[in-house]
Amino acid sequence: MADEFRVPAIELRAWRQFLVLAETLHFGRAAQQLNMTQPPLTLAIRQIEARLGTPLFDRTRRRVALTPAGEALVSPVRQLLQQAAALAAVAGAAGSGAVGRLRLGFVSTVGFGPLPGWLRDFRLAEPGIHVELREATTDVQLAALAQREADAGFVLHAPGMLPAPALEHLSLGTEPLVLALPAASSLAGARRLSLPALLAQPLIIFPRAIAPSIHDAVVAFYHRHGATPVIGQEAIQMQTIVNLVSAGLGLAWVPESVTQLRRDGVLYRRLPPSLAGAAPQSETSLVWPGDAGPVVERFVRFVRASLTG
User: Fold this and answer.
1) What is the pTM of this model?
2) Residues ≥6 apart with Cβ < 8 Å to 66
3) Which of 51, 97, 150, 234 would be a feasible disulfide site paired with 295, CB 3.0-4.6 Å?
4) Strand 202-205 and strand 57-59: pairing?
5) Which parts of the chain have pLDDT scores under 70?
């Protein structure tokens, strides 16, 4: 049954000839517009009608008119030719990265910084690119990039300690880790922080697998001062860590940008100047595979320009 209604393959050139004749209803003028003589045009129309099995034009010596079948084809043939003419532009836009999809991962801390504004401006600058966002920890992002399930990602690491050196990267900058303290603790209200008292407090921290270099930097700070951190609780997301601090379960080291996350029961404090230089730091980088496509290249150029502009 399906074979009975199968549409025969007809070249675009033949459909263009049909459309010009349908619009002029005159073989001579149509042939002139098509830069051909009338006999080949007449033959081409007959071949279309033969393939379709129905006449498209009524011909007399005085006039040429469309049959109902011919009238029914004018609009879809016009659309077909317009779409075919646009194919080169579509392919060119895709090849240059002007249209496409960007699967972008990001750590939560970037959301407290420039990411929302960048996404807004990038959407305005590149309306043909659809950005799919996925909030994920650094380790999850790296796995997604390795499996080609993501195109690029904003990751967190200790300064200079890229989590995947094989990836291309662009640094967004570094920031110190500051203390998130339970507001009810004696440390929160102290005029001067006592380092021994601080190091003795239960520590709320993310598992080492999430961001090994930052985890190690925090632990190394304790070791440099003759202490071993007492892990009170582990949590994956920064928001969860801050919430646990508000519940009084311990203190946490968080990137300074997280101080924008306000929670009742949490007070953020820097280390005193005498210790601030030795405080752990974090670096945020945009990473992507070296063989990434033009859409990723456009986003990288946009971010780089945003950083320097």
Assistant:
1) 0.70
2) 22, 25, 56, 57, 58, 74
3) 97
4) unpaired
5) 1-8, 88-98
